[in-house]
Specification:
Blueprint: E1 3-9, H1 23-33, H2 38-41, E2 44-46, H3 66-85, E3 88-94, H4 99-110, E4 116-121, H5 142-147, H6 161-171, E5 185-188, H7 195-203, E6 207-209, H8 211-229, E7 235-241, H9 263-274, E8 279-285, H10 296-313
Parallel strand pairs: 1-2, 1-3, 3-8, 4-5, 4-7, 5-6, 7-8
Helix pairs in contact: 1-10, 3-4, 3-6, 8-9, 9-10
Length: about 325
């Protein structure tokens, strides 16, 4: 039985909508409302953010606040690496999803020789680079960063040298680049993809389970097929963006998308996946209570978190 450690990264400088930095605290408030002592039982470390940059100019239009994000990702990777080195199971409670680039870097820094599989439960592919991004928001780039992928074939933008220097530093975090292979990613619930990202997904024949497949085949089969696809990996990281859930549930997130999985499917899927002994780290991102009524998103997310934790500790 592993000791769990919460790694709180209340950063939102990579999102387009304000408020995701409050996600981890909203989850804690949900815990209090449920009378749960989860956050008393489990030790937590808080990663220093750069959210003060929200009050300044965004810098490059193609990688907004990239310099600040580099600092946050460096700190996140160190926290995750240290947790794994202490034989803990890190659960990252993140603001926006860019943090995942730091988490994956930290896992690889702890285990540089191990092959890492990634289960990305998200409505979005997060495969943009400063060259292709339509928005400049870096929470759309974490997987491109760890794949060392610029997608030069689909260049739309002309990022300046300083932006590209920082982008290259993010890609090389932990002095390992790329950190994962295309074949070692499984997407679940993916449904809002830009053409530049579709190009990469098709080119690399990336494994994707759509919402309709989850509903048709059931969580058990999706989990089994996902783990079978990653059977060559030594370790597995699960990243859960709450917008993977349907927009009728996930109002409290920056980019809700219709036709998602239900909170029940999300919870059952995560519990089933986390039973696999290769899973070494779990991340929750993009809860935004400012967009929500009655803290509903955080409550749904807390219930899922509670199920995951009890699976890990029983």
């Amino acid at each position: 039985m592993k000791k769990i450690r919460f790694v709180e990264v209340k950063s939102e400088i990579a999102a387009g909508t304000r408020g995701a930095s409050m996600g981890p605290d909203a989850i804690k408030i949900a815990a209090l409302d449920y009378g749960s002592n989860l956050f008393k039982k489990i030790d937590s470390i808080e990663v220093q953010t750069e959210n003060q940059l929200l009050f300044e100019s965004t810098g490059s239009p193609y990688a907004k606040r990239i310099k600040g994000l580099l600092s946050v990702l460096e700190r996140t990777s160190t926290a995750v690496r240290n947790s794994l080195k202490n034989n803990e199971f890190p659960i990252v409670l993140a603001g926006d999803h860019s943090t995942a680039a730091g988490t994956i870097s930290g896992i690889r820094m702890a285990y540089p020789k191990q092959r890492l599989g990634v289960i990305w439960i998200d409505a979005h592919a997060d495969l943009h680079s400063p060259w292709t991004t339509p928005s400049g928001n870096m929470h759309g780039m974490p997987l491109a960063a760890v794949l060392n992928e610029d997608n030069a074939q689909n260049k739309m933008n002309k990022p300046d040298k300083e932006t590209l220097d920082n982008w290259n530093k993010i890609k090389k975090l932990g002095n390992i680049s790329p950190k994962i292979e295309w074949n070692d990613i499984v997407y679940i619930g993916l449904r809002d993809v830009e053409p530049e990202e579709s190009y990469l997904l098709k080119k690399h024949k990336v494994k994707i389970f759509s919402t309709s497949e989850v509903k048709r085949n059931g969580v058990e089969k999706i989990a089994r097929d996902t783990l079978a696809h990653l059977s060559r990996c030594h370790m597995i990281y699960i990243s859960f963006d709450v917008d993977s859930m349907d927009s009728s549930i996930s109002k409290g997130t920056g980019t809700p998308v219709r036709n998602g999985i239900t909170e029940k499917e999300a919870g059952s899927l995560l519990v089933r996946l986390i039973q696999n002994e290769k899973v070494c780290c779990f991340e929750i991102a993009e809860v935004n209570p400012t967009l929500d009524k009655e803290n509903l998103m955080a409550e749904n997310t807390f219930e899922i978190l509670q199920r995951v934790v009890s699976q890990l500790t029983n």
